Amino acid sequence: MADTLRRLVNTSAYNVLQEKLEAWYNDYHLKSCDQNLNRCCELVELTSKVQGQLFTILSLTAREGGQYAGVDTLKSRFLPWLGSSLFITSSGVTTDTSLNLIQESMEKEKKIRALSDSHEQEMQKMETQLSAARLQLDTMKQELADGEFELNDMKNRSATTLLASEDEILQLKADLRASRDQTDMYKRKLDVLDDFERQIRMLKDEVSYLTAEKSLLQDRITRSRSSSPLPRRSRSPSPLPFLRSDSPTRAQLTNASRHSRLVTRFTDIYANERLDAQNLLSRYIDDLEMVQRILFISTVESFHAAKMAFRQFKLRVRKTLSPTHIGQESLDDAVLDYIVRNLDLYDIQSSVNDVIRAMNVNPKISFPPEIDFILISSFIREMCRLAFAMQTLEPPLDLAFTTDGELYSESKYRRSYDSEFTAPLVAYHVWPALMEGDNVIVKGEAFTKRGALWSPRRSRSRSCSPNCSRGSSPSRALASTSRSSSPSRLSPSRL
After folding, report:
1. For the chain, what is the radius of gyration of the CA atoms?
2. What is the C-alpha to C-alpha distance for residues 170 and 368, in angstroms, rounded to an integer?
3. Taking the C-alpha atoms of 138, 142, 143 and 146 in order, what is their torsion angle to the nearest 10 degrees?
4. What mean pLDDT do residues 329-345 have?
5. pLDDT by residue (tens digit) across 68-103?
6. Nearest Cα residue to 410 out of 383, 438, 444, 381
7. Whole-prediction pTM
8. Which of 89-93, 317-321, 349-353 has the largest mean confidence?
9. Which phi-psi region, left, alpha or beta, contains residue 21 (left: φ > 0; alpha: ψ -120 to 50)?
10. Which of 102, 246, 351, 454 has the maximum number of C-beta atoms within 10 A of its C-beta?
11. What is the SS3 string spanning 319-379?
């Protein structure tokens, strides 16, 4: 018995049976009915062989135990199992049942064949789709590789272009710096040339003045010789008033040229310096009307301060020249001629300070509290210098009298671009008109609007009271200390 059991163990019949069962299960749907039945019969045969060996072992084991050994076990377990198996087999299987089973097996075989065919078709379709997807994937990979190649090429070209652009930018910056330096050099040369031209004009005026004096002296000598042949006789005092009235001063000789130059300067300030100051104020004040009012009032106050300074300057010069005045021209002509020759003695900074003080208390204009009107001091300085020089003309030039809401005059003003061209009244003035007596030399600019007198005006009150002085800026303090010498401190030797 032991040898039979050992041979059964060594053959591993159950392992082979298990492997065949698993293989059959895995390939069940792929095989035909005949193949499955052959596999099942093979398994039945293998099982019967194993059962035969087990029955042999059972018989040998019973024999080794003796005649009555193992009887209880056979009765209690083997015989009941054997009887139940035979009963189930004999009672369940009939002729009809076997036919039904055969029919069912045929139907199942047909279904299995249909399922296998559909499965094979689906597998073929899936393989076809898989191959198409693989081809598409390969195509996309190739396109991606081409795109990466093009992208790298574009990056390389962009890097090259960027380097070239940077080199061009550096070259352009260098050219710009060179052109700016050249422009500055030309500006300096132009300033020097302007100085030379100014000196040439002054020398020409001096020459013309001296030529006129020379001709007058020659005429005087000729007349004196013709009236009195004796040179030692005293000159008659009667020709002196006539000679004094006919002797022109330098101021009289250069009046026309100075007039045209000052009028041209007035228009240049309107076209250039005024716009620069307007752009500067626009950084701090958003209201264009307020900016234009500030510039207009600063222009009017500059003329007023320059006229006051001219009167004081003229009085001081007269007081200085009157004790030592001699010559053919009158004292007034000598005073005016001295002022024309020494315009650089005008204390412009004092007039600028007076203009800023007057603007600080003007209720029509306002300014941010952190900014001072000294911001436009350069514009005020140019206007004061121009207004002072205009007072030396005969007759002097002045600004037209203006009031808000006055009747618009075509002879004195032109309308601003944003005006209402049918409005008869002036809302506010942008630039004053330049007058010579009652004649308009240069037209001003005004903003006209209907209902100018009745339109609600925004509050012009300043952030602080007009009586409260602003904080003194360092530039104002510096400018007040550095002033030019006053004519009152002039000595007769300088005259």
Report:
1. 62
2. 42
3. 170
4. 85
5. 566 667 666 666 766 665 444 444 445 455 456 566
6. 444
7. 0.46
8. 349-353
9. alpha
10. 351
11. HHHHHHCCCCCCHHHHHHHHHHHCHHHCCHHHHHHHHHHHHHCCCCCCCCCCCCHHHHHHH
